[in-house]
Design brief:
The chain is mostly beta strands and 69 residues long. The protein is 12% helix and 46% strand.
């Protein structure tokens, strides 16, 4: 299992949707700084892009690249 990364963000919500999410350093100059909610989030970095985009998983059909089934 890969190690998860931690990120600290100030997040502003509009109803149930996120309207802004910035790191603490970038949020200092914002006029809405006091209305943001501080959150610590964790994520697992995705490293499967190379495996996903290997040439043997795709084929050309009429000049277009299609994923093999």
């Amino acid at each position: 299992m890969k190690r998860r990364n931690k990120i600290k963000l100030n997040i502003r919500f509009s109803g149930d949707k996120v309207s802004c999410a910035k790191s603490l350093e970038l949020c200092k100059g914002c006029s809405n700084y006091n209305t943001c909610e501080y959150m610590e989030l964790y994520y697992y970095p995705y490293d499967g892009a190379i495996e996903c985009m290997k040439h043997d998983s795709y084929k050309r059909v009429n000049g277009a690249i299609k994923q093999r089934e």
